[in-house]
Amino acid sequence: MTKIAVFWGCRILTAQYGYEMSVRQVLPKLGIELVDLREASCCGDPVKSMNIFAATYLAARNLALADKTGLKNLLVPCNRCHLNLCEAKRRLNEDKKLQTELKPLLQDEGLELTEDVRIWHTIDLLHDLIKVETIKNRVKKPLKGVRLASHPGCQIIRPSELGRVDDAETPKKLDDLMEALGAETLDYSEKLDCCGAALLFSNPDAALSLAGSKLEAVQAYGVDALVDSCPSCHEMYDAKQEEAGKVIGSKLGLPVVYYTQLLGVAMGIGVEKLGLHLNRSPVHELLEKIH
Amino acid sequence: MSLKDLMTMAEPKLDLSLKVLEKVWKYQPNDCFQCLRCTSGCTSLKLLELKPHEIVSLVKLGFVEELVASDLIWACATCLKCKERCPQKATPYDVILALRNLAVEKEAKVPEAYLKAMTTILDTGLMQTEQKVTTLKLKTFDRETLGLPKISYPSERFKSAFLKALGGQE
Fold first, then answer.
1. Tens of pLDDT, residues A88-114
2. pTM over 0.95
3. Which chain A positions have a beta carbon within 8 Å of B133's beta carbon?
4. Is the minimum CB–CB distance between B75 and chain A shorter than 8 Å?
5. Which residue of A has its CA nearest to B137?
6. A173 touches A123 (CB < 8 A)
7. Measured by CB atoms within 10 angstroms of the end CB, which terminus of chain B is less buried, N or C?
8. Bridge-based pairing state of the strands A225-228 and A147-150
9. Beta strands, E only, chain B
10. What one-character-per-residue DSSP string does B88-136 give?
11. Of B129, B130, B158, the CB nearest to A41
12. Closest residue in A to B89 (Cα–Cα)
């Protein structure tokens, strides 16, 4: 077992339980022991729009908490948290003044930034550390005849100058992982379209319209499901799918699942253990196809 | 208010452009040569008429007050395509975040949801409170009934440190 610290972020811990449940189910079966950070806070994402310095403090604080575990690897399953922690890590490495400014704030809680922790997302952890071959070997129920579209999301693939999880314009790790389960994948022109989640804060109708348009396009391709790996994107495509359909005046009914939920099903783990009963999109239509 | 309305009375203030530049770290909005790669791929162009190249241009020209008062800076979906594709490291994404920060400093109109998130972070450490979820079969669950561990929330010491961080950077 390899021990890895995990920073869940707010959205997973407070609402997107299916992601947390499925990650907690699949990773230990693939040789990863997760160690939750104690007293973790918001990563700084919504704060960045109001106060960049305070947002960087929040990210640095969580990195320091990861440091405190003594583990060298940190899993950050949320795309937005992943970006924020990676950005902060780089700024701290390159900006000595910022380091000096943040030090006393961290010291207030007895925290310190010492080591460079390696930040992983679910997708590169599975693809690059656990490896596609290992996953292939663990499949008990292959997804034969299942056609899937991937939604990699924005924040784990851009900006590439920061070093991201996959290629900025032609990401394929998520598709590789889907194919490892025996599914057929789809190359489609809306793949890089944004889910719109960040606009929920300021322009909810535009946010829902962006999510709805992508779902409508994917549905028209006749796939069995859309697969994602970010709590913000998933909230838009799954929990808000009905609302999004209303905004664009379209009847939507596309199953949307987290990759880790799908992986769990293929590994033979029970549907409720993976939180699939919490999905609001019609996932039963997809599950009926997997035997 | 739309940017066009605000611009009819506008007067350039270059000192405010410098304030934006201070906040974009190492990126270089001044190097923008208006190639429009950002705008041509912008997620918010069609629905919200966000044109990132215009934002960068207005900052260069000193029309920061107008941008700070405009709803437009809140129309960015933060998809980062402009940052990825900018050939000049002018990165409209970072410029827009800097403008939002200035809007907060100048007590301009900030979308309510951001303020709410901030209040919740100050209160609990997280941006939203634990939610109950209802399934399609109308059963309701929370962390406990799903068998998930209790959240370990930050202590009071976090709150005071975070307040200090919000108080500002020297």
1. 999 999 999 999 999 999 999 999 987
2. yes
3. 15, 17, 278
4. yes
5. A277
6. yes
7. C
8. parallel
9. 133-134, 140-141
10. TS--HHHHHHHHHHHHHHTT----HHHHHHHHHHHHHSSSS----EE-T
11. B158
12. A161
